[in-house]
Design brief:
Blueprint (H helix, E strand, L loop, with lengths): L1 H9 L17 H8 L16 H6 L25
Pfam family, one: FA_hydroxylase
Organism: Vibrio maritimus
Protein name: Sterol desaturase family protein
Length: about 80
Amino acid sequence: MLNLGLQFFVHTQWIHKLGPLEWVFNTPSHHRVHHGVNAQYIDKNYAGVLIIWDRLFGTFEPEVEIVRYGISKPVNSFNLWL
């Protein structure tokens, strides 16, 4: 139940910024960046719970523009076996 609660929390669009908690914990804003296909958001914000690791290793990117979701390259095949 705790994991489900955490997943609901980080995937919500209703929460924008959480002030000082943004420096330590993975928040919905950080997780939106993780799923974004905007050029500056690719391969960023890997944190599960603590965002401090992304800050330490240079993979942190704050949410500064509206996040676009999807895939960055079109799928060239519908073959399930490739």
